Amino acid sequence: MPSPAPLARRLVAEFIGTGLLVAIVVGSGIAASRLSPEDIGLQLLENSTATTLGLAMLIAVLAPLSGAHFNPVVSLADWWMSRRSSQPGFAARAIAPYAVAQVLGAIGGALLANAMFNIPAAISATERATPATFLAEIVATAGLVLVIFSLVRSGNARMIPAAVGAYVGAAYWSTSSTSFANPAVTIGRIFTDTFAGIALASAVPFLAAQLLGGVIGVLLVSYLYPVVAAAPEVAITKAATEVVK
Amino acid sequence: MPSPAPLARRLVAEFIGTGLLVAIVVGSGIAASRLSPEDIGLQLLENSTATTLGLAMLIAVLAPLSGAHFNPVVSLADWWMSRRSSQPGFAARAIAPYAVAQVLGAIGGALLANAMFNIPAAISATERATPATFLAEIVATAGLVLVIFSLVRSGNARMIPAAVGAYVGAAYWSTSSTSFANPAVTIGRIFTDTFAGIALASAVPFLAAQLLGGVIGVLLVSYLYPVVAAAPEVAITKAATEVVK
Amino acid sequence: MPSPAPLARRLVAEFIGTGLLVAIVVGSGIAASRLSPEDIGLQLLENSTATTLGLAMLIAVLAPLSGAHFNPVVSLADWWMSRRSSQPGFAARAIAPYAVAQVLGAIGGALLANAMFNIPAAISATERATPATFLAEIVATAGLVLVIFSLVRSGNARMIPAAVGAYVGAAYWSTSSTSFANPAVTIGRIFTDTFAGIALASAVPFLAAQLLGGVIGVLLVSYLYPVVAAAPEVAITKAATEVVK
Amino acid sequence: MPSPAPLARRLVAEFIGTGLLVAIVVGSGIAASRLSPEDIGLQLLENSTATTLGLAMLIAVLAPLSGAHFNPVVSLADWWMSRRSSQPGFAARAIAPYAVAQVLGAIGGALLANAMFNIPAAISATERATPATFLAEIVATAGLVLVIFSLVRSGNARMIPAAVGAYVGAAYWSTSSTSFANPAVTIGRIFTDTFAGIALASAVPFLAAQLLGGVIGVLLVSYLYPVVAAAPEVAITKAATEVVK
User: What's the distance, CA B60 to chain centroid?
Assistant: First the structure.
């Protein structure tokens, strides 16, 4: 269901949502590495738990307004998958503004987290790119697209907040890259030299892997769910409305 | 939807709900610091997990009666945001009694937690105020108001229990202040010299930051969701009711 | 809504449900103390996480059949609170059979957990009774009754599985007794000399505190929610049914 | 509700779903054992948390297409329990193809996890079979079948994703075998010599126990829920549809 809100307001929603997402990822990473210095696994558990809860919550809050993409790959996939729909979908001309708002929000979120923990601004020195993490980012992003658009196409979009939160919580642990799976968030995480940071040289292959994963995800959804199911709720509302006419 | 219950009963609900919330925050903090003495991060994970679960549960239980504010900033924002609504909203004259019930409940909850762990009553000596935690409390409270009233205005109020629980679970970790975000709870936590306590001198700037954050949150919601959407459930009930007339 | 199933089948449901609940509490306690020998808090986190998930799941599975009480205090409260309802409620003559099934299930669950971990049967030697834990059990049981019957009376019974699971997860950490809050489970936990066990001498005051807490919980609910609200779902179904007549 | 999708597409869904499930189990086990080398309990908590979230999410995503069995015992039970239903159920001729897709997916998932963490392919050397774990696998699989088909028969199938995720999260900790409860996943986990692996010699008795547990689970459900309740949602949709005719 496309939002009836003006584009400017939807862009502010994407800016705030992506910003708070990165502030949660980076901020909880800083807190975890300070408070649990002895065990990196425990740090990651604290970091992934905060992100699981935070992402699910942010999607629930902002999806009615902007769709709560927070991710250029999701915006691209949303446009592609709705372009032949009989219903109005996500417009091609909104992709670039969405991506800009997401990237700016992500950078702002990293800087906000640094400020909340009194950490000076710095570019990350954490190298993460290896063949294994490149594969991991492909899988992680394909999976994310599979989750979101399978739920859209099977008429279960109301499950997206919890399912995407759960997906990211599982993917943090199941991949060697800890599942960035999001170009905007990847760029934002360049701007903090803390637990969740990523060096610029590693961000570039991560972005490539994410785009490739997004294409694979779209192909999977297109095969598995070739048509869009009507959501049961919508059916009820429509029926009840016609009754009272 | 304003509660049809008498004010006295709603005040008891706010007293009990805020009291149990603080008993959970303080009690789980005491248990965590006793049982996991080696790792402060693990203590915070135990504390934040209990609070996430407990807060979501308390809102589900008491929202039908009092709205489950448990927080003077939320009561103020509820009044402000519903004051021009065509439907009856939260009345200005209920704000002060709600705040008193919340503060008394919070103090009672701290004392109850102390009693359940056989800890003598004492005022907290934990200083928490710094420029970084001041900023963190502004962000945390603005985010809390954004979550609650975005869900109200988008017709998704049924998601508030889970979303607010998840918000607090994420905010514990993403902010340097561990996200008090609640003047009543802040005052209650003065009355325990344990893991979750806060010294009086730190409580004052925390309260100021929370009020400022509340204003920012209200402005954000007013921009993002300027009108109130009808909840789908309510629409169905209403339609079905008219049908059978 | 009283179950239309025969009493024998409902008793089997209570036996299995209480049995699996105790098997989860005791079994996860054994695994936690074996696998995390260095940190008692981490053991309790593992134990409470398993119990939160397991209890919510068991209630969802068996509530349509027996009400999923798993707890004599809940059975007593259910009878008391529905005794003057215009709809058929939980019958007084079912209380004793329910309690017997729950206690036998709880003992069986403790023995099953021991067997699954190859631990010889033995009576627990863990003393837990103090004035502080006595108070904690009163609060924990009153809170449990408050949660369950507030949700029943406000027409939100569909939230009970998640809310009761969350309640127990929070109460484990917020009380000095780790919140037994259940006479059947308390008796069952006498029959295992492991992490979750309780000595007979401590079980007796725990049972007294739980009964007292149950009474307080019933009084609280009776004050806060004096009447039963119609569940929205039921209202819809009823309306739609009448329409098609 | 049987899926209208062609069998080939449903088999791809089972292949992908079981594959991602095993990739999550194996991958998070590798990450946990690398990052938390000091505490096996913490490793299992990280592993079980990822699996709880991942399994719930995968069921939500793929259930509308294939039923999201991911498990030959579930496919067998689904056929058996729906064979005399008046509605079309899971066909006997689909069992073998489903099982093949599940086993191949599970092996593929183990290999994918190895590749994402740059671990050479190897057969597991982890012996797990003892009389205690044999009993545990019986109980774990019976419980899994009890959960799934009780929810189906009581008209609460929409709760299956969350309930099955929660079940596995609890069962990981409550059983000495960590609850494989799935022949396909057991076979897949032979193909990784890491935290979650199982030696071939142990897999054979695990498979036997799982089949036995499946039979017990079917008997329990057949006794507890002898008839299928109509799902409330379906009832509403049907009623509303007839109204507008």
Answer: 13
Residue B50: which of C132, C169, C232 has the nearest Cβ? Answer: C169
Name which of D167, D173, D241 to mutate to probe chain C: the one with the most chain C Cβ atoms within 10 A of its Cβ. Answer: D173
Q: What is the pLDDT of residue A245?
A: 31
Tens digits of residue pLDDT in B144-201 = 999 999 999 999 999 999 999 999 999 999 999 999 999 999 999 999 999 999 999 9
Instruction: Out of 3.40.50.740, 1.20.1080.10, 1.50.10.20, 3.30.40.10, select the CATH number for domain A7-244.
Output: 1.20.1080.10
Q: What angle do CA D188, D192, D193 make, to 5 degrees?
A: 140
- CATH 3.40.50.300 applies to domain D7-238: no
User: What's the pLDDT score for residue D240?
Assistant: 36
Composition of chain B by helix, strand, coil, percent to 5: 75, 0, 25
Query: What's the whole-model pTM score?
Result: 0.94
Q: What is the pLDDT of residues A91-135, one digit of tens each?
A: 999 999 999 999 999 999 999 999 999 999 899 999 999 999 999
What gap in Å lies between CA C11 and CA B142, rounded to an integer? 50
Residues in chain B with CB shorter than 8 Å from the CB of C37 are none
Cross-chain Cβ contact C39/B43 below 8 Å: no
Give the CA angle between residues D104, D109, D113 to the nearest 5°. Answer: 155
Residue in D with minimal Cα distance to C243: D243
Which of A50, A43, A49 lies closest to A20 in space, CA to CA? A50
Query: Could D54 and A229 be called an inter-chain contact, meaning their C-beta atoms sit closer than 8 Å?
Result: no
Q: Kindly provide the ipTM of the predicted complex, given to two decimals.
A: 0.92
Which fold would CATH assign to domain B7-243? Glycerol uptake facilitator protein (1.20.1080)
Interface test with B, best of A3, A14, A22, A57 (most B CBs within 10 A): A57
A242 interaction partners in chain D (CB closer than 8 Å): 244
